Amino acid sequence: MTTKFGVDFLKAVAGYMSQNGSHDSIIKCFRITGGGNGRCIGEFTVTKEHLNSHGGLHGGFIATLVDNVTTYALMSKESHPGVSIDLHVNYFQSVKEGDEVILNANTLRAGKTLAYVDCVLTRKFDGAVIAQGGQSKFVKITGGGEGKCTAEFTVAAEHLNRAGGLHGGFTATLVDMVTTYALMSKPCHPGVSVNINVNYLKPAREGDDVIIDASLLRAGKKLAFLECELRHKKDNSLIAKGGHTKFVDFQ
């Protein structure tokens, strides 16, 4: 496939993610062999660094693969990479050092706010299913550029705490991710977090529409400073306000 969001696009995204010095670099072994239009297919050879203490493929490494490769598949659908809401993996069979593994990720549905992507890992020599996983992602970006990012979402049951309000951890994740998107629109290296702070001012309930507005305050040679507000769409009342400092000197 040679379209704008085909195999070459997927290889470029994977190459950037595996070389940016973040946790994603642990999947640099992954080789993309096909995909586009919501799919990503690739393979890797299990090496010693991928193993757990029992000599099998590490569950955490598999989860990282599922996270990244499903995101690549989603991006090939011409969708924003989004923010993870749910990630799950079922483990069926072990593989050992030297085994070749194929990953096949597919976008099941990409709506206005949420996207659903699944992934299957199989052993290359016999097709045995090693693991099956998937994730749900919040994807609705409504505006931005030049150091800004605006997005919105509708609060769903999976976003709530036990008291029925918008979960503080989910709010913090949104602050983290949306401010990073704002930073990257400058353009600037996405960096690594030095500090994240969130002040929670008002609850949001299931069904509420929330607007997120992130902006870059300053980007220096080493540090970037960003802020973010979450507001009720119906009355513009402030739900939470956060800030994010990132180290960006990766030259």
UniProtKB/TrEMBL annotation:
One of its GO terms (molecular function) is fatty acyl-CoA hydrolase activity. Keywords: Hydrolase. InterPro entries: ACOT13 (IPR039298), HotDog_dom_sf (IPR029069), PAAI_dom (IPR003736), Thioestr_dom (IPR006683). Coiled coil: none annotated. The keyword Mitochondrion does not apply. The keyword Hydrolase applies. It comes from Glossina palpalis gambiensis. Transmembrane segments: none annotated. This is Thioesterase domain-containing protein. It comes from the Eukaryota.
